[in-house]
Design goal:
Elements (H helix, E strand, L loop, with lengths): L9 E2 L3 H27 L4 H29 E5 L3 E8 L1 E8 L5 E6 L1 H6 L1 E7 L10 E8 H11 L13 E5 L14 H18 L6 H16 L1 H24 L3 E5 L3 E6 L4 E7 L3 E9 H5 L2 E8 L16 E7 H12 L4 H5 L7 H37 L1 H8 L1 H23 L1 E5 L2 E6 L3 E8 L3 E7 L2 H6 L1 E8 L5 E8 H11 L12
Antiparallel strand pairs: 1-2, 2-3, 3-4, 5-6, 5-11, 6-7, 8-9, 9-10, 10-11, 12-13, 12-17, 13-14, 15-16, 16-17, 18-19, 19-20
Helix pairs in contact: 1-2, 5-6, 5-7, 6-7, 11-12, 11-13
Length: 515
Amino acid sequence: MIDTGMAGAERLDRRMVTMTALLTGTIVVVGAVVASSAMISSGTPAWVTTLAVFGGALAVLGLSVGAEYIRWRATTFRLTEARLELRFSFVLNRRRSLARDRIRTVDVTAHPLHRLFGLAAVVIGTGQHGESGEAELKLDPVSAERARELRVELLRHAAGTERPTDEGTLAVLDWQWAAYAPLSVLTPALGAAALGAAGNVASWFGGTEDVTGAVVSDLLVAAALFGYATVAVGVLLAGAVGATLLFVEMWWGYHLDREPGGTLHVRRGLLTTRSISLEERRLRGAELVEPLGVRLARAGRVDAIATGMRNGGTQGKRADPKTLLPAAPRNVTLRVVADVLREPDVAATLTGLTSHPRAARSRRLRWALAPVLLAFAALLTAWLVWGDAIAAAVGPAFAGMVGAVPVVFAVIAVPAVVLLALDAYRNLGHGLSGGYLIARRGAVRRSTALLQRGGVIGWTVRQSVFQRRAGLVTLVATTAAGSGGYAVPDVDAAEGIAFADEAVPGLLTEFVERD
């Protein structure tokens, strides 16, 4: 039933069977203890409990290990000068093949169990977006040494390119960068999640009461006794600890290297190690991402704009393959961008971007204030209509506090959104730097895209009714890399068209009317 007749073929590492047996055995033992305790407490006879628990455990363990053994026996792969072939032959034959000149990414991942056995998973991609994994092959697992050899062999064809080969280390981890992790917008969410998790753990040792309701009630009591600011600080501290630990796990041992032949190589990870390769011939630019908290600390991260990048890939959402540099000081990010793009004048260009007209500021103020005013009107209307019922429900002691909610909301929200709108306007900018066009936008998440001018395959010019009255347009540079399009919003119409025509000469020529 199993056919492994592919000449010169290799198998996956046989230790995968032992690894599966260990993992499944651990889960089975824990499940057996819980099941036997439940059956004994319910009055089930001891011999019935023993037969059911051990019989079920052996069946689960046997099926899991047997399936993994069949996968090991039936899976073979072969690497030739022209192709990489993967074959699974058990009852039905399934063969897949990739031409080596189409291989664009070779990512190596090893989770803790892999590392315990000296194994790794190799994901080979073609740089195309396929469905159901058809655009990539996965060898899981092979030995860690063989995984490193495969990465070098499969990307060897890149060494024949004529790109400069000034290989070397571009960036290494500085532990001072961990201080930027708590400044992420995810920190409050991580803190709330930590409190919820603590409540759930506490419920395992308590009764069956509603844990969520108890946690909310305890928070309200704490807020009444110590103030909302104290509770918020506690949540933020828990989130900061979680964000720092997550940073350590993701970026431990981080290195960004340029290898011979023009390949960028990122290595990182503590529990789960990741090795991500990116060919420079697929690189179309870089994106400097600066969330608000990180930007206030004068820092940011660097993402690659490249063709065929998978968002998260098969390695999990945490392993974002496009991130070249974690949150780091601004001078470091600018240096890394300049080194990656081979564009030494990036820093000077970013400080001299062309600003946008004042009409763009008015649009941001209107869009920021509109939802706040609507929310204030809704809160005020609710209090005027149902104020008596709400006061009766919360009691006279809290009625005044509830009645002040619309005013407090307006006093806090209006200045906040106005400041964000003004900041968003100040952040608008565009310009050219050598072979790259630059587009900057955003307030809560400021993004500066440096897009290769030769990678722009089209321009989309959008103009709403309100933009037409203000003499503004939004330009979108279409590309086959990254998100597929990078916008220059609310730029002066004539200036924007001239910028697009200068950035990519000839692309808009036949559509431009000249005086």
